[in-house]
Automatic annotation (TrEMBL):
It comes from the Bacteria. Keywords: Transferase. The keyword Lipid metabolism does not apply. PROSITE patterns: GNAT. This is GNAT family N-acetyltransferase. Residues 1-161 form the N-acetyltransferase domain. One of its GO terms (molecular function) is acyltransferase activity, transferring groups other than amino-acyl groups. InterPro entries: Acyl_CoA_acyltransferase (IPR016181), GNAT_dom (IPR000182), Mito_N-acetyltransferase (IPR052742).
Amino acid sequence: MLIRPMRPDDFETVWPILRDIARARETYALDPELDRAAGWALWGEAPRATFVAERDGAILGSSYIKPNAAGPGDHVCNAGFIVAPAARGQGVAAALCAHALTEARRLGFTAMQFNMVVASNQVAIRLWRRAGFLIVGTLPGAYRHATLGPVDCHVMFRALDDQAS
């Protein structure tokens, strides 16, 4: 698997993945009516860096890194990860996460924070915990899940001052 910077033309493949995740209302706090222009602004323009994971020329997923806050908080980054349905369970998210941790350090960030990890997304929670993230807070009923109704969200955090990924 190759992880490389996303090019503008890669968004043709990334967009349907992002759109379908937003519409599903199961894992991301995104407007389910997200349109392509807003998706590009979110995933392609706002981040400090955006990447794709590919194998044999096929894009399997994507990630971004951006400051979590401005000014005195801009040393803590946020990252987002999406994986194509056909590539789930193949280690794509784990590879993107390890890559994001390395890139975040390279970009000068000292910590990474996930603001809303949907508590019902146990696959992601296990993955982020294996990557060294701690649940530092829980937001009761903060997510309106498409089928489960109100679901808690976790704030997850890890310092980047170590070299473990």
